[in-house]
């Protein structure tokens, strides 16, 4: 005998539903009872985006076995008010915001590094490597691939909705409350290494004549040795930093 359950997805979780289900209401039929996690992901919603699940009004976790006639409410992370911690199915936030990004998010990677956030990126990494780095190094996996977020071992992940890199930065900053943790110009945007002050005399042979003449404050990446100074692009980069701080 076929059973069914009604699911209602709230707020941004509706982004993952088919266009004819954007009301958030989905009815799923099943012959064999499975976990609510599997049913949620069968609707297209990655488990990494879910924070609270209620089945007939009671909080349940991902292992809950769906029963015939269940009415299930699925919520994203609550930002505006506190909820009972025991209700949460999502993991605790990381102690510090660290990221690993997929191949589609190269520009966003550079923006996050500009703001001082540890952001791993290698366009050669495939899905298994991205998941492994996320779990082993306690990094939030940022991706434009919904399927990637459905890997069972993944705990911290987020689907970036925006397409424009500047809008992506705004979205991620708000989602992870980055505004108060910015340490701008502290990381190499090319390789993610830490920047350290360096005397001009040490690097003079690597500088163009105009740069040597007009600048005295330099930083060098501890990993790749790239040199940074407040050149012609500095004002534009500072405006990016200021915009995110003011969100």
Can you tell me about this structure?
There is one protein chain. The mean pLDDT is 94. Helices cover 24% and strands 19% of the residues. Among the domains are: 3-87, Ubiquitin-like (UB roll); 99-111 and 121-179, no CATH class. It is elongated and about 80 Å long. The termini are far apart. With 247 residues, the protein is of the alpha/beta class. The strands form three sheets. It has a five-stranded mixed beta sheet with strand order 2-1-5-3-4, with no helix packed on it. A four-stranded parallel beta sheet has the order 7-6-8-9, with helices on both faces. Strands 10-11-12 form a three-stranded antiparallel beta sheet. The longest helix has 12 residues, at 234-245. It has helices at 36-42, 106-114, 127-136, 165-175, 200-203, 209-214, 234-245; strands spanning 3-9, 25-30, 52-55, 58-60, 71-75, 99-101, 119-121, 140-143, 157-159, 195-198, 218-221, 227-228.
The H-level CATH homologous superfamily of the domain at 3-87, spelled out, is: Beta-grasp domain
- Report the end-to-end length measured between terminal Cα atoms: 53 Å
- Which strand order does the major sheet show? 2-1-5-3-4
Please tally the β strands and state the result: 12
CATH topology of the domain at 3-87: Ubiquitin-like (UB roll)
Gross morphology: elongated
Give the CATH class of the domain at 3-87: Alpha Beta
Residues in helix, %? 10-25%
Number of helices: 7
Order of helices and strands, N to C? Answer: EEHEEEEHEHEEHEHHEEH
Instruction: Write down the Rg.
Output: 22 Å
Strand content: 15-25%
| CATH architectural grouping of the domain at 3-87 | Roll
Q: Overall mean pLDDT score?
A: 94
Category from helices, strands and their pairing: alpha/beta
Main beta-sheet annotation: 5 strands, mixed
């Amino acid at each position: 005998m076929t059973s069914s359950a009604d699911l209602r997805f709230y707020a941004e979780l509706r982004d993952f539903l088919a266009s004819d289900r954007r009301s958030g209401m989905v009815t799923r039929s099943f012959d064999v009872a499975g976990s609510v996690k599997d049913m949620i992901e069968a609707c297209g919603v990655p488990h990494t985006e879910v924070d609270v699940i209620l089945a007939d009004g009671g909080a349940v976790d991902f292992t809950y076995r769906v029963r015939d006639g269940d009415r299930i409410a699925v919520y994203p992370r609550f930002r505006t008010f506190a909820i009972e911690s025991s209700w949460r199915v999502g993991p605790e936030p990381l102690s510090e915001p660290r990221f690993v990004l997929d191949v589609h998010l190269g520009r966003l990677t550079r923006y996050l590094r500009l703001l001082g956030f540890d952001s791993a990126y290698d366009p050669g990494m495939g899905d298994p490597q991205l998941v492994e780095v996320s779990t082993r190094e306690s990094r939030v996996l940022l991706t434009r691939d919904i399927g990637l977020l459905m890997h069972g071992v993944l705990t911290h992940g987020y689907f970036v909705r925006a397409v424009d890199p500047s809008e992506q930065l705004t979205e991620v900053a708000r989602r992870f409350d980055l505004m108060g943790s910015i340490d701008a110009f502290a990381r190499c945007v090319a390789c993610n290494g830490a920047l350290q002050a360096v005397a001009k005399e040490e690097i003079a042979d690597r500088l163009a004549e105009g740069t040597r003449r007009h600048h005295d404050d330099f930083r060098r990446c501890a990993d790749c040795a790239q040199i940074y100074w407040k050149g012609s692009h500095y004002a534009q980069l500072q405006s990016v930093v200021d915009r995110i701080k003011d969100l």
